[in-house]
């Protein structure tokens, strides 16, 4: 069986994942809507997952894919709790603009 | 150019473009739909790397569960007419400058570090079928597996408690 990375190269995967991660960071900084910030966090998590799988293929080892399973479980838990928090924030303050949530500022 | 390389380029372009459009589009529902396309293309990357089980799980968990949850939340909040938030220009400029700087620095690190990429080995043994993954998951990673289940349980209880309507006691 031929290794798929013979034809693509691990460097291309590294560059793709770096750019994807940077797009996620850009989203966190650029948008004020808290749900879009959540989506950007998902994009960052996915960039790292993709790199895990690429290196798992590179080393011909399954451990990288196991890590991806755990990070998916953590992401699912994070989204469930985070969206519940967002809904309760929206019920109390009627906005989810992160620029306006500054009650703790004093 | 082999067909696999062309496939990789097309998938990467779709991934990056939809990820960017997710952030750029004004309407949150459009963002969510672009994000679904982005997740599907990442599942395509997993298929390209021959990780079939992971691709299926990715489609089920991300494109299925997480995005449905987000769409429900967006529709629950009815944000369509209040997304005209005025951002200060300095914030936008700062975000764009930081994005470009971070890209340059990270890519520069990876180019300049000259990673030792050896030969792409293919041992021929099966390492990513469901059988092998299940054996590793339930032998070596038994304790983290159980902790993951506890984490999901706690997250479920937390989500229910947080979104429950509070009784007004006076």
What features would you describe in this structure?
The complex is a heterodimer of chains A (about 110) and B (about 170). The model of chain A has no long low-confidence stretch (mean pLDDT about 90). By secondary structure, chain A is an all-alpha fold. The radius of gyration of chain A is 18 Å and the shape is elongated. Chain A has helices at about 5-10, 10-30, 35-60, 65-95. The termini of chain A are far apart. Helix content of chain A is about 75%, strand content about 0%. Chain A has a domain at about 30-95: Orthogonal Bundle (Helix Hairpins). By secondary structure, chain B is mainly alpha-helical. Chain B folds into two domains: about 1-110, NADH-ubiquinone/plastoquinone oxidoreductase chain 6, subunit NuoJ (Four Helix Bundle (Hemerythrin (Met), subunit A)); about 130-170. Chain B is built from six helices and no strands. In chain B, helix 1 (about 5-25) packs antiparallel against helix 2 and helix 2 packs antiparallel against helix 3. At the A-B interface, helix 1, helix 2, helix 3 and helix 4 of A face helix 1, helix 2, helix 3, helix 4 and helix 5 of B.
Q: What characteristics describe this protein?
A:
heterodimer, A: 106 residues, mainly alpha, Helix Hairpins, elongated, B: 170 residues, Four Helix Bundle (Hemerythrin (Met), subunit A), 2 domains, EC 7.1.1.- (chain A), cell membrane (chain A)
């Amino acid at each position: 069986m031929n290794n798929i990375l013979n034809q693509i190269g691990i460097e291309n995967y590294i560059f793709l994942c770096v750019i994807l991660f940077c797009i996620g960071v850009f989203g966190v900084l650029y948008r004020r809507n808290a749900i879009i910030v959540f989506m950007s966090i998902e994009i960052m998590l996915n960039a790292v997952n993709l790199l895990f799988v690429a290196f798992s293929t590179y080393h011909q080892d399954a451990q990288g894919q196991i890590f991806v399973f755990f990070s998916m479980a953590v992401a699912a838990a994070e989204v469930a709790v985070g969206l519940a928090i967002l809904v309760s924030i929206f019920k109390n303050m009627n906005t989810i603009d992160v620029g306006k949530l500054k009650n703790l500022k004093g | 150019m082999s067909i696999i390389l062309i496939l990789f380029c097309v998938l990467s372009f779709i991934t990056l473009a939809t990820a960017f459009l997710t952030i750029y589009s004004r309407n949150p529902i459009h963002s969510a739909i672009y994000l679904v396309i982005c997740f599907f293309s990442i599942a395509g990357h997993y298929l390209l790397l021959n990780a079939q089980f992971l691709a299926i799980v990715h489609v089920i968990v991300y494109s299925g569960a997480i995005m449905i949850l987000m769409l429900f939340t967006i529709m629950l909040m009815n944000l369509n007419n209040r997304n005209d938030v005025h951002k200060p220009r300095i914030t936008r400029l700062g975000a764009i400058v930081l994005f470009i700087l971070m890209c340059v620095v990270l890519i520069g690190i990876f180019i300049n570090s000259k990673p030792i990429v050896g030969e792409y080995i293919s041992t021929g043994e099966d390492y990513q079928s469901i059988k092998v993954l299940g054996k590793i998951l339930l032998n070596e990673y038994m304790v983290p597996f159980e902790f993951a289940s506890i984490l999901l349980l706690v997250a479920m209880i937390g989500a229910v408690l947080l979104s429950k309507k509070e009784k007004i006691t006076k």
